Automatic annotation (TrEMBL):
Keywords tagged on the record: Cytoplasm, Endonuclease, Hydrolase, Manganese, Metal-binding, Nuclease
Entry keyword annotation includes Transmembrane helix: no
Gene Ontology MF terms: manganese ion binding; RNA binding; RNA-DNA hybrid ribonuclease activity
Organism for this UniProt entry: Facklamia languida CCUG 37842
Protein name, entry field: Ribonuclease HII
Catalytic activity reported: Endonucleolytic cleavage to 5'-phosphomonoester
Record-level GO BP terms: DNA replication, removal of RNA primer; mismatch repair
Broad EC category: hydrolase
Amino acid sequence: MLENKSLTQLKALMADVKDLDDDRLVALRKDPRQGAKKLVQQVEKRIQRQAAAYKAYQARLTYERQVLDQDPGLLIAGVDEVGRGPIAGPVVAAAVILPCDTHRWIAVTDSKQISDKTRRQMADLIRQEAVAYAICEISPQIIDQVNIYQASRLAMKGAVDQLSVQPDYLLIDAMTVDLDIPQMAITKGDSKSLSIAAASILAKVYRDDYMIQMVQEYPEYHFDQHMGYPTSVHLQALAKYGQTSIHRQSFGPVQRTQKNYKPS
């Protein structure tokens, strides 16, 4: 009888319950104790959250399945970039070819929708399990030469070119690249495709780490706080200390800056 168990024992018993019809949960619903009733609510909410997460994960495989329905043997690479909006730092793209088994990738989604901790956990998992992945960065100097849109496309192309395994098909976030590989541009692809989401995570973690490293070189700008985006803190530092070698000179706030950075 569950009534004879303490709430601590009940929590341990319910820890691996994954179905609302599990006999243990059905029995717990009959326990009249307030603590037991609260535990029932917690377990039910957890199961519902897990079910919703799994449903969303399955939805993020829709485009991959559409391609594989045509040829199950195709290797699909998801491609995404980060860093179009900042006024400092590179634009970074990643390409990822999913493994056959992605059951541990349920939390892989648009990098903007998850915490830094989860992003880094998923990045480690992606690097461990992906068939192949590659990352390409395009410098602020190149961005200034060709514009940010074309620099993003160059980064994406570079990431695909650097893959150790040649993909047969590309799923790309919102654009196409100049490669002789069949491809599909998906608007908001980082939230709709698992392959693109994985690429967005790798690119985001890589770029964040780059900007964090830049704190040592340019401590006055606090790049670890804003990653180069034009926040008030960043714009104040730009006005006070001037533009650095990693600022994008073609971007308005930097263009309006009349001084260059000098180390103190």
